[in-house]
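--- STAGE predict ---
source: upstream dedup step, 1 unique chain passed
mode: sequence only
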Amino acid sequence: MAKNRFLSDKTAADIDRRVERVLWGLGNPEPPLALVDVRELQKLDRAFYTADDPGLTREVIHRIRIGTIQVYRRPMLLLDAVRKASLQALYLPDRKRILIDASLPEKKHRWREAHEIGHSLIPWHEDVMFGDNTYTLSQDCHEQIEAEANFAAARLLFLRERFTDEARSLDPSIKTVRGLHGIFGNTLSTTLYRFVEVAGAECPMVGMISDHPHEMRRSPTFDPSKPCRHFIQSPAFARYFGRMPEEALFAAVASYCGSQSGGPLGERELVLTDDNGNKHRFFFETFFNRYDALTLGRYLRPEIRLLAASA
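--- STAGE serialize ---
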């Protein structure tokens, strides 16, 4: 399941204070945030690597723990781990260096870099931070650490309350998400993700980042049991519709999507059932940016049930 994970209020507030200090140190800049300025302020270095480069082993071997003695004796174990984990970025605390996979599309560098900056801002990550992989941590701990770094990255890239205030003042739509994407300089996918989380705090809202919903356009690697790369619940949606299966919602969205190769794919009102069995009407729309299908669903009203009058 690709659902987003929420932090406790205490943890979120602690991380947010650290992000606030960074933005204050930069003079509370206007969007889009220049990450080069953040690196300079935090005295961080950035470099690129490839998983087939022996230089990666020299760079991180002493920080990755995969049966420590075995790694020292057989350095290629590290490269094997990197490949198996599909590792996209690393943060090396002792060197204050961020490493980004050079094969990653350039438009994704910004989020990966901010994510690693997030790790660097959270002091309790240093003892468990040996690269973005699942080999050194339990799955639950790994997911918690990643959620914390994602939260820090989002608060940083979207300038804390600057994005929140704008998102909540605008009509919840793909058009709005595209506009905010242009202002803050982040990808459409990350903008949709953050928009759902902050604009849907009180009113249920849900987002999906997926393969093309139309069956003729789906990639050969599409997995119908896991159709969404990200299934984004707003706090209110998680509260009332938390048991909604992503497979069912993806199928409902696919029912209205056309096979266009880009741009709007369609829109429709859909009826969803909450965790108590009550039905509610949402408005859904889907946009394809030629890489991902971005779907936004916003709450409209309870579904009215008409009862037949008895004779």
